[in-house]
Structure formats: structure tokens, C-alpha cells
What does this fold into?
Amino acid sequence: MKKYWLVAKNTWDETVTYRFNFVMWRVRTILQLLTVYFLWLAVIPKDGSFGTYSQSLMLTYIFGTQILFSFVFASRSYNVGDEINLGNLSNFLIRPINYFAYWFAKDLGDKAMNIVFATGELTLLFLILKPPLFIQKELPFILFFILAVILAIFMYFFFNFLLGLIAFWSPEVWAPRFIFYVLINFVSGGLFPLDVLPSAIFEKLIFLPFTYMLYFPLKIYLGQLSTSQILSGMAIASVWTIVFYLIVKLVWQAGLKVYTSQGR
Amino acid sequence: MAESMDVIEVKNLVKLYQVFQKEPGLFGTIKSFFNRRYEQIRAVNGISFSIQEGELVGFIGPNGAGKTTTLKCLTGLLYPTSADKLSVLGFTPVQRKPQFLKSIAFVMGQKNQLWWDLPPMDTFYLNKEIYEISDSQFKKTLGELVELLDVGKILNIQVKRLSLGQRMKCELIAALLHLPKVLFLDEPTIGLDVVMQEKLREFVKNYNERYQSTIILTSHYMRDVQALARRVIIINHGRILFDGFLPSLIKRYAPFKLITLVLKNEVEKTELAKFGKIKNFDYPQVVLSVKSQDAKKITREILANLPVEDLNIEEADIEDVIRQVFIGNK
It folds into this structure.
């Protein structure tokens, strides 16, 4: 286990060597937060509402998505494709280390860094903007929220990994990824809560994995889901996580058979 | 002495690659976008050999001969297309059992395992955990390797700030910390200057003697192999052309020696040609190639008949020998 701890620690150290890069990434996150924040601040008047959302709930949702974004979607495993293409994967295959666990550990190191910064920034923003945020005080909601976030992290990790594994068959790993990035922000509820969409669309989105990456955990936090909704959502998210895991495993095994370990 | 065991056994190993073909130019690109043509390349075409414990074997061949592909099959990176037998230390490489991975190391001259942005020491610590090396063993091995390679001062400098030679030394340390029983070296001296090449060779030799590990190295620098390996396996177009000891290779493919003369005064070319084949004539120096068994006799005749200032007899240049092998098998 200690090896994966060291991988996480090394990743943390690595991030520190690229301080400027990292700070710029954080600045981007804050700018994104501010634009969406002010947009919704303007759309919903102080005592007004949008669908079932009061101004305070909507702003909390927006704040929340931006924070969750850096936990769930900050993943380094997009590099898997490059490692396969460049043949660097070989260096892992010849050592007794689990490649999935290796990347997951790297992600944890990366996320830890993001959490530290996000906490600092939000405290600052909170003090400056004094937004009317909704604070969840009931323990069950908070616990389910944390559980949902963990599921989301795993789900996204496997999905992102899967996109990288395309490299076993094609060097063009970036094109599918770009399409995916554009789509995911929308369908995971990164721009607005998904339930403001027409119910015909929303009812279908519920069965997609992406809904459970941002929207679902936040809805739990806001206390807007009934127990049965939470449980059925958890079930769907778990099924997707397991399905992704199995697909990744199968694709990985198949990929190794065609791996050519080429490279410079 | 106990009978030494075969550490590596390979029988009839074949590896095919699918290679995608593209005609040059924009039109070719568009055409290949819609209609991909693949061609099969036989990288390794039915080779067999076995290697015993403690041997140091050199794999030689031009680029694309199949050397690296063979090593990749032996280390479990590639699935062989077919093989009647492929075993390393009794394991089937491609299963990549932890016990197998802990007993081997594969150093690829062109691929780094060191973390680029961190000092080498961080990678060493990580490998200590990956290979589950005890604290005392780690300390001892690291100490020895650092001393052998003389890198004590650079262990805490970011890898990206190290020179190629320093980096290669650290790569070696990272790969050897767990004292692998079988060590695969793929072009370990590539890109290094002559002095550094020399040092690395010396190190590999020392390592082999000190830890009794089996070492297989590929190189296209003949000097590497000559300095290190007693046994060579020459491979081209995926087939083994020669497998045996260096002296017998020379005897078989180059049954001649080179006599280098420095002349006191000028001699006609035709006069020199009587003694042997002129390989090089740049007055006052002449290089003659003669049959090995006649070398002594001819030397005596030369000394008696030519105005010689200096004379030197050498084995055929190994590079020439190899060329001979390749030409002979075209």
C-alpha cells in the first residue's frame, strides 16, 4: 500500500514544481465560477425563483458544481493515452505495480492539492461576495453527499481511463476526449441543475452516468431528494461504476494483447 | 560444480506486427483515412536459444532486426504471436506474475522510469516500496550502486537538470535496486559519449561478476558487445544468424588477420599486393589482410623483403566480421 501513498506524494511534489501552471489552472476555475455565479445572480432576483430554485439554492448549486468540478474532474489519467502512444507504459508493465492503482494514487495526490487550494479560494470568495449560500446541517444528507461524490470520482476515473485506452488501437486519443469534455459539462449539470430541463429530457438523463458526476451529489447536499430518490440514484451510480470498471478491465486486457511498446 | 540451469528458454518464437501503410502526401493521407491498408511484418521469425544462469549475452543486429522485439517478448511486454516455448526463470513472461517482475529488470535506453520533475532519490524510494525491499537491503544496495557509478552528488537534483549520462546511470540504479536475477539492457549506451560508454560497460561487467546475475544486452555498438559478452547472438530479419562465442565467430566468418605496416620508403602497390589483400594504402601506412593460418609466414616474408619501420598484427575488426555475417546471409 505504501507504494501508492508514495505515488500520491510524488504527484503532489510534482505539482509544486509547476506552481505557475497550477495557479493558472486555479485562476481559470475561479473565473469560471465567477461568470456562472454572476449570470445566475442576474437571472434570479433576490426573492425570486427559477423553477424550484430560489436564488440562494441556485447560487449554492453553482458554487457547489465548481468545487466538485475540481474534485471529480481533476484527473491526470488523461495521460494514459499518451503513455501508451509513447510506449512509456512499458516502464510500468515491467514493475510489480498495478497500473490502475498507480493512476488513482496520482489522482488522489492531484486532488489533495486541488482541495487545499479550493478551500482557500472559497473562503476568500465567501468573505468578499458574501453569497446567500445554503448550508446543509442534517448529517444523513451530508453523509450521502460524500458517498455520492466518492462514487462520482470512481465513475469519472474509470471513464477517463477508458478514453485513454483508445490509444492501444489508434493514436488519435484527443478527438474523442474533446467532444467528451464539451458534452460532460452540460450533461453532468455543470452549467445549471438538470431538473430545470423539460421533464421529457430530464427523465432520460437520469439513466446516464454523467448525471451522477455533479448534479446528483449536489441535489443531495441541497436536501431536495427524497430517501427513495437518493437510494435509487445511488443504485444507478453504483451500477455504472461497476460497468465502467468491468469495461475498463476488459479493454485493458485486450489492449495489452495488441500493445506494441513502440515509441521513440 | 553444480550443473547450471537454463534461465531463459526460447523455442521457435514468432512475433508479427500489423503496420499501417500510408502513401506520401495529402492525397495519400485522405486515401488512408477511408481505406487503411495494413501489412504484416515479421519482426521475429522463429528464433530459438537458451541462456544459462550468470551468462552475459550480447544481441547484435542492425536497426529493425528484431532484437528489441525479442527482449520485449522475454520481459512480458508483448504477447508473442506464437512460441513453442518461452520461459524466463520458469515463468511465462506475459502473465507478469509479481514474483517474475521482482526477479527481472529491463532498462530501455530510450525510455525513462525516473520521475522527470523530481530528484532520482524519489524514484528510488518509490521502487523500494514497489519491489518491497527492506530498509537495510535498500541502504546497502543503493550505497554500492551509487559508489560503482559515482553519482553520490546528484541524487537530490531534479532529473530534468541532469545530463544524459547522469540520467542513464540513475536509470540503471532505479532498475537494479531490487537486484534482479535477470537483467535486460536495450541499447544502454545510446547517445552517450565514449568515456561514459566505457564506464557503463565496466559497470555492467562488474555487476555481472558481483551479483552473478544473467545479463542480456542489445546494442548496435559492436564495442559494447565485444567488451562485455563472451557469447553473441547475431540476429537479422527476425532470424538468428549466429549464436556462439566471439572467437569462434571470428574464426568462422573472418579467417583473416590484419597486418599494419609503416614503410620507410615508397613501395609499388603491386609489390605489396603479393603479400596479401590491400585494405588501405595511405603512405607510409599500409593495411594488409591475410589468411589467419598464413599470418606468421607472411609476416616473416614481409620483414625480409620490404623496408618496414613498424609492423602490427591484429584480429579482424569486429565490425567487419559482423558485416561479413550479414553479407553472407543475404
